[in-house]
Fold:
Amino acid sequence: MSLATKGKITNVQELMALSKKVRGSILQMLTKSGSGHTGGSLSAADIAVAIYFSKMNYNADNPSMPERDRFIMSKGHAAPLVYAIMAEAGYFHTDTMNTLRTIESPLQGHPCCQKLPGIEVSTGSLGQGLSVANGMALGLRLDKNPARVFCIMGDGEIQEGQVWEAAMTSAHYGIDSLCAVVDCNGLQIDGPVEKVMNINPVGDKWRAFGWHVIEIDGHDMQQILSALDEAEKTKGKPTAIIANTTKGKGVSFFENKVEYHGVTPSEEQLVKALEEINNG
Amino acid sequence: MGERPGTEQIDETTDASGVKKPKATRDAYGDTLLELGKEREDIVTLDADLSGSTKTAKFAKAFPDRFFNIGIAEQDMVGTAAGLALTGKVPFASTFAVFETGRAWDQIRLTVCYSNTNVKLVATHSGITVGEDGASHQALEDVALMRALPNMTVIVPSDAAETSLAIRAVADFLGPVYVRLGRAKVPYVMPDNYEFKIGKAHVFSTGKDANIIANGLMVDMAVRAAEMLKLEGIDCGVINMSTVKPLDEVALLAAAKASKILVTAEEHSIIGGLGSAVCEFISEHSPMPVKRVGVLDTFGCSGDPDELLKFHGLTAENIATTVRNAL
Ligand SMILES: Cc1ncc(C[n+]2csc(CCOP(=O)(O)OP(=O)(O)O)c2C)c(N)n1
Ligand SMILES: [Mg+2]
Structure:
């Protein structure tokens, strides 16, 4: 039985419990695989959990159900987060998480729509998800299908020019079924975003591109839920949620550590990390 | 480019003797896309501020709700097309071949080919016959770029009639396709009863001495080269390999077995295009001499299209000379 059959979850405590569970799965998956992206999977966990379980209309038993809402993890390196959520939602057996990044696995290093039903489009090359989200939203609109489209991007990712091409397109076509989230954890691979290539003021940029912008604490479940509600109610323009987050959130020794972008926990770290998450 | 609105004549399609007048493959695309739009609700079109030149403007005018001008943003155009395909639409995304394949290659790779979305990339202004705009606008590497991608089908029609048939076949086909079209008017070369099938070459004739494997506007030149050679007693066949990927290996092998040499002819760099595809197959399955006629490892330049063809040796004469020398 999939979580979807339980209906949408809007209780903050329940969602926070799910976030904990998802963070635990991410860490276990990554420890097992020995490679993959820890920091950015943890920073976007609360937002992604809220989108999936409080807002999205999906059916894990029928992933191609036409009326489903669409979710695109444009920063594809946060694949472990997507997989942890999908396992929780019932798209596949939780054991499958142990196969992350192995040859026959549907859980490729970056999401692959050809190998894992429920992944809408393959990602991994940054900066491309928002364009695809636009296309989906435009296609759904032509069909008078009320389904909505969610797209999570990284703050480093939005340095890609294509993101701004797409941002223009969303606003130009008034795509209000689209809700984009920028996971502003302040870090990318080579260091702080501000130092590598400053993107600030982020909110003003999206506003200038014609978007409705909501800036929140991306780990405050109540704020996340309010923002998602506001996005849904906003008509005539797309909504961008600027989520201020902490890279590696939930594990003190990963938090704000640029080196834990693409490094996985050791066995000892996993034990401590799970402790912190469960007691946090 | 220089398409001024209203300068396009809609005059008769045949000359005084009833021979069909040359027509650009891009024009055939625009006409066929419009017809398809009338027949099928699921066809949508995208362009990147070149709809007048790519001829998607005809579709845009008739079906404004199903046309998306993405502006000068080819990467976004390709991603948006992928998204539309993922909701069951059949998107035709067009711009010049240089920008379509070069600027948006990673987007094509990830969201079209790797994601295996039903996107139709139909590019115009390929090759040196772009003419005066010069090298920045002359795609000579596009087939190489597209051919290297898994899941991609690559089609280079030879004339307006084949283009119409190909566009219809592409609309019915499920999966990513790249169709390479031109700006210049080209003569009709395919027989009236020709039936286009993706992956099926058209064999005009099979020669005992040589066979020319051509596509695009070089098919017409290959046919004329074979006629010249015939007068000299050289038995030379011609194959239109309009689908470069997947290659019609059966037709190719038959031609190889029948003759002493093969010559390829394409309006593309000799690196990575039809010539390369033929060499790759022949070297493994039927090793024999293969000569490639195409643009040598160089960029194009500005000029009159016909003069550029001569300048680069993309002529019936040069194909014939290549055959003669190889024999
Ligand atoms: C087009 C592209 N260039 C480079 C990379 C390599 N890369 C992977 S993650 C990353 C940093 C991403 O930073 P950010 O978007 O802030 O993600 P997060 O901090 O959430 O992990 C880079 C450069 C890539 N995947 N795609
Ligand atoms: Mg970041």
